[in-house]
Each structure stands twice: as C-alpha cells, then as structure tokens.
Specification:
- By secondary structure, this protein is an alpha/beta fold.
- It has one domain: Alpha-Beta Complex (2-enoyl-CoA Hydratase, Chain A, domain 1), CATH 3.90.226.
- The chain is 50% helix and 17% strand.
- The protein is built from ten helices and ten strands.
- The chain has helices at residues 41-56, 79-84, 88-107, 123-130, 157-174, 182-188, 198-212, 217-227, 234-248, 252-269, and strands at 2-5, 17-23, 26-32, 62-67, 72-74, 112-116, 119-121, 133-137, 142-143, 193-195.
- The strands form two sheets. It has a seven-stranded mixed sheet, with helices on both faces. A three-stranded parallel sheet has the order 5-7-9.
- α1 (41-56) links the parallel β3 (26-32) and β4.
- The model is unreliable at 4-10 (pLDDT under 50).
Length: 270
C-alpha cells in the first residue's frame, strides 16, 4: 500500500514529495525535494504528518525514514524560503516545522530506523540524530551550517546534543562551514553503522527490520519511551528555540549571508 502527498506547484516552497509505503510490518517514509532534498515548510508539514499517521497505523510495527537519491540525504532548510521570510510570523511558522518533525519522531510509539545515504546538513543532521537507530554510508558527511548564515542550530540542537553531548554539538555548530565525516558521526554516536555502499547498507537495514518485526511490540514501545525519557518538555523547548531562529533570520546579517549563498548557487547553475 502506497500513499503520496503530491507536488503542489512549481513554486519552490511546494515542490517535493513525501511518500509512505507499508510492507511486512514496516512503514517506509521517504521525502524528496529537487534542491538537494532541502526542507521547505510544505515538506516539513507533510513529513510530521506522515510520522504521526504511521505511528498510529496498526499495520506496521517499525518506521523506516529516508530520502530519495544516492548522495544527499538532506540539504537542510530551504534557502529560497529563508530568503522570502519577511516577518516574525512567517519565521516562526518555518522554524516550528523542524520542531514539529523532531517532536513527532520523539513522541512516536514506534522505533524509527534512519537510512542516511548521503550528506546531511542542518535540519538533516537533526533528523539523523532524532531517529532511534541510524544506518549510513561513507558518503554521509555531517554539517551544521546555521551559524554561517547568522542563525544557529537552535531547533535541532537538543536532538543532536542528546546523541553526541554538548562537546559534539559545539564542534559541529561552531565550525559551521566544514563537513564531519560519516566515520566521525559513527564515533560520536549519531550513526550506528557506516557502510561502503548503499547496497551494503540496505542489506544491513533489511536484516535489522526483519529482526525487529519479529519481536514484542509492547517491549519496543516501552524501550522507545525509556530512550526519550527526560525530553517531555520539548514541545515548549523547541518552539522557544524556533523563536530564537525566527528573530535571527530577520536580521541584516542573516539576510546578507543567505543572499550571498543564493547568488553563488545561481552563478554555479549558469
């Protein structure tokens, strides 16, 4: 059974897709966007809804989360949408989208297995950290680029810190222009396994999913709750963090940095 949230128009804000396929007790959720699997508001809303829906789906036991393509898992926030934000209401709506996705993952009663086939930037690092068990390829480098555009990884920070501690978060957040390798991600604890190829990774994922779907649902739900103990206040925390990012994205420094990046991308595309 496959469900799809369709592309809405050619507007960059509404490009992309989130699809769901339920098979053998697993809900396979995949997001995509033509701009390096970036995350505009429309995709964030659909992704949070997909996770919520499949958390309630009695036909599945486990959620598998990935994106389309083979070398970029997620390019982070949509820079086109960031550039279009002109007031605090728009800013809050955009950044709360990341908060909603992470909170949907946190509150899901099901274990979420992540498949990170390529580079993860910004919000993509947050999603990678928020899954309960994470597979990656050697190409799955990590970068929290927010500080470089005058924002800071405030919304995804708690999810990253929960996995790799304050020191690991600091390393990623402060050195915002450099990628960390997939091996670094495994050493720090974001990735559980790193494989040389997508094919090898998918074999590993398949074996784990077979094992998980043969185990006790009640035990897995209890484990999920225990793994996220102490994060009950994240509904408020992440929205507070979204407000911080929302105010910063309206500053002249941030607007200038975002414009420079978009100009560079435009020149490279010519």
């Amino acid at each position: 059974m496959t469900k799809e949230f369709e592309n809405m128009s050619i507007d960059y804000k509404n490009q992309g897709n989130v699809s769901i396929n339920v098979d053998s007790g697993v809900s396979y959720i995949e997001f995509s966007h033509p701009q390096s699997n970036s995350l505009p508001s429309a995709i964030l809303k659909r992704l949070a809804k997909a996770i919520d829906d499949e958390s309630r789906n009695m036909d599945s036991q486990i959620i598998h989360l990935t994106s389309s393509g083979d070398r970029v898992f997620c390019g982070g926030a949509s820079f086109d949408e960031l550039a279009s934000i002109s007031n605090e209401k728009q800013a809050m709506e955009f950044f709360s989208g990341f908060a909603n996705v992470i909170n949907s993952m946190r509150k899901s009663s099901k274990l979420i297995v992540g498949r990170i086939q390529g580079k993860a930037v910004g919000g993509g690092v947050g999603i990678s950290a928020a899954v309960d068990y994470c597979f990656a390829t050697q190409y799955a480098g990590l970068k929290l680029s927010e500080l470089a555009v005058g924002i800071g990884p405030f919304v995804v920070g708690p999810a990253v810190e929960r996995k790799i501690g304050v020191s690991g978060l600091s390393e990623l957040a402060i050195d915002a222009t450099q990628f960390r390798t997939a091996e670094w991600g495994a050493l720090k604890g974001i990735y559980s396994h790193v494989y040389p190829t997508i094919e090898a990774m998918d074999e590993g994922i398949s074996e784990l999913l077979k094992t998980l779907t043969s185990q006790s649902v009640n035990a897995q739900r209890a484990l999920k709750k225990a793994l996220w103990a102490g994060c009950e206040g994240w509904d408020d925390l992440l929205l507070d963090r979204a407000r911080i990012s929302g105010k910063l994205v309206l500053t002249d420094e941030s607007k200038t940095a975002i414009k420079l990046i978009l100009d560079k991308k435009s020149q490279e595309a010519r």
